[in-house]
Amino acid sequence: MGGRSGGLTEQRRPPVAPVFWLTFTILAVISFGCGLIGLEQYLGQNPDLGYSDHPLDVLYYALQLFVLGSPPLDAGGPFPPILDFARFAAPTVTAYALIEASRLLFATEIKKLRARTARGHVIVVGDTLVATTLARRLRLAGDQVVTVPSRVAETGPSPRVAGAARDPDILRAASVGRARAVYACTDDSAANTAIALAAARPRRNGPTLAVYAQVADPEVCAALQARLLSAPNRQGTRLDFFNIEDLAARHLVSREPLALPGARPPTIAILGATAFGRAVLVELARHWRIRDPGAPPLPVEIVDPDAGTAVTHLTDRYPFLTRVCKITPHDYGLDRLLATPSDGPVPDRVFICYDDEQQALKAALTAEQVWPGEPGSVVVRLDRLASLREAFDGGDRVLDELSGTLRLFGVVHAACDPVLIGDDLVERLARVIHERYVLDMTGRGESGPALVPWDELPDRLRLTNRAQAEDIGRKLRAIGCTLSPRVGPGREHQLTDDEVARLAVLEHDRWRKDRAAQGWRYAADRDDEHKLHPAMAGWAALRDEMRTRNLDEIRQLPAILADAGFRIVRLRT
Description:
By secondary structure, the chain is α/β, with parallel strands linked by helices. 47% of the residues lie in helices and 12% in strands. It has helices spanning 16-45, 55-64, 81-117, 129-140, 168-173, 189-199, 218-230, 244-255, 275-291, 307-317, 321-324, 334-339, 357-366, 389-393, 411-415, 418-421, 425-443, 459-470, 472-478, 497-517, 544-555, 557-563; strands spanning 122-125, 145-148, 181-184, 209-214, 237-242, 268-271, 298-303, 325-330, 349-352, 378-381, 406-409, 481-485, 521-522, 532-533, 566-570.
C-alpha cells in the first residue's frame, strides 16, 4: 500500500547485475574492435614478424587476445595505442566472465550454506503472494530471511532451501533451531498447520521461536486458536495461526475509523458477504461500540446472494452484533444491484469485498448507487490489480471524477505486517476484556485513567489484561472445559455456581502471584506508590466486596468469549 496504509514503504533498488553485464558486454565489443584495428596496424608496420595479415588471420589473433595468447604479441612492442588498450581490456572481460560463471555455478551451494549457518533469522515457507509479500516486508524491516518454496526451486533473491516444504528435513536445512520466527504461508492450510507443528516442537535452549501458520478458512483458524489457548504452553516456542482476511479487516478499520456525518450514525454498505466482508462488519461493530456505548445502532446493508445466511451466521457467532448494528441483508448479486434505480439515499461508506477482483472493479466503476462522493469513501478490495491505483491517485488521472472517491485496498499487503500477525488470540482476548471493562465502567458513569481505548492504555495495564487472557485456557481445563468457536449449533456450557467460585479463586491466586512478582504486598489500605493493596490477601481473608467483584468478573467470562466469537464447552470424560 502507499502512504495511506501506514505500512512500510518499499524503495526499489536499481538492478546491479544487469548493469555490469551490459557494461562488460560493451567493453568486450570495443576490445574486439580495437584488437582488430590494432593488430592490422601492428602487422602492417612489422611485416618481418612473419605473421599473415589476412583478414581471417587477424580475426583469429584478435579473438586470442581474450585468452592471453595472441601469437603476434609475443615479439613485444612497441604496440599501437589502440592495441595496447585491447590487450588489457580483453583479458579483463575474460576475468569477469570467469568470475560470473563461478558465481552462478556455486550460487545455489552458497545460498544453502548461508541458510544452514544462519542465526536469528526468519524462515518464510511458501511461494504464494502472501509468502513473497511477507518476505519482502521482513527484509525491508532489516531481517535476514530464508525462504523455503512449496515446490522444488533453486533460485531466488534471498537464501533458499531447495526442496518441497512438506519434507521434514527442509526445516532443519533452513536452520530452524537457530531461527527467530517461522511463517508457514503455502496455499494449503493443512500443510501450513503441519509445518508449524513440526517447527514448534519444544526446545530447551535459545530464544523463544515464534511460529505462525496461515489458515485460509477463518472458522478453522478460530478453532485452531481455541485449541491452542486451551493447551499447555510449549517450552521455548510460541505458536499461533492467522487468517489474512481477519488481519486485513483489523488493519483497515483501525487505520480508517468511521466518521460521523452529523448527528446520525453513518450508513454502511458491504458488497460481497465474503470472508473479508464479514470480517469488516465485525471490526466496524467493535469500533462503533467502543466509540460511543450510548450511540444508536450502526446501519449496515449487505448485498450478496447469500446475505441473509451470512448475517444469521455472523450474529450467531458474535451476539453483540444485534445490539450494536442494524443489519439489513439484500439477497441478490451485483447484476441486480446495477439494475436497481439509484434515486434513493447513498451510503456514507462502501466496502466492495468480492473475492473476484474483476467483479470488484466492475462494481466500483459502474455502481453509481454506492458512490457517496466523499474522498476515500468507497473501499475496493484489490490485490493483484492494486497496480491500478495510479489510475485513481496519480499519473494521468484517467478517472478523475472518481479519483478521490475510490480507495483501492490490497488485502494481502495490509495483512502481511509482522506486527499485526504477531497479535495472537491472547492479544485479541485481552482487548475484548478491556473493551468489556470500559463498557461496564462507563455504563455506571465512572471515569478513570484506564477507561481509554486499547491503543492508549498504559503498558502496565495491557500486560495485566494479557496475563488474564492467557490464563483462560488453564482455568477452563481445571473445571473440565475448553474453548470452541461459535460456529453452527453447539451445546454451550453454563457455568455453575461452584465452577464460578472455583474459577474466581484460581483467577485471584493468579493475580496475587503476578502482583507479588512485581513487588506488591498486602496492606489494609491501597497505596500504589508503595505497591500496597488490600486484595493481596488470600481468598478466605478477602473482603466480601472484593470476592463479589471477582465472582462477577468470572460470570462475565462467557459474554467476553462470545464477543470474541468463542464459547465454553464441556469436555467429555
